[in-house]
Fold this sequence. Notes:
Blueprint: H1 38-53, E1 58-60, E2 70-75, E3 78-88, E4 94-101, E5 104-114, E6 116-122, E7 128-134, H2 136-148, H3 159-171
Antiparallel strand pairs: 1-2, 2-3, 3-6, 4-5, 6-7
Amino acid sequence: MPRAGEPNEEFHVTVQPIRLFGDPVLRTPADPVVDFDAELRKLVADLVETMQEQSGAGLAAPQLGVGLRVFAFDVDDVVGHIVNPQVSFPDDEEQDGPEGCLSIPGIYVDTKRRMNAVATGFNQFGDPIKLVGTGLMARCVQHETDHLDGVLFLDRLDAGARKEAMKEIRQAEWYDAGAPPVVKTSPHGGAAFGLGGVR
Length: 199
């Protein structure tokens, strides 16, 4: 995805702090973008810069504390973003593998996802785009779209795996014990499939 907007626009791109598990913004559904303006293009640039600084495969706006339906991705040397994504699944094929989240650092748990996903939405200028993903890209699309719905990949785990993950989280240096966990369900494909921070 482009680092900035139109050629005559210059943004001071800044690596932003990533909100961590327990922050209420991560559990709040994001609002659709209605203004495709310079502020949105600055957000997209910040998402890409922060994601790449943290070596992430994806980063959603709520992870920067911004409640808008936008995420950036960097998978297999494909860097981009999508605004107001709508996700569909062309088949029922599944994948199961390790998933993590930049908002839950250091925790990786095998998580079931759909193998193939299609996201339709817009770029930062309001032009329609379509993102067809398989494997890691499909996982990223699902994970980041879940973030836009206030859902974390932990919500996709069975009770046993979630309990183990929470045990690891409670032992992590960054964990804030004052923020109790909340489990939510994504409207995208049922409890067995979700979207979380990848890589």
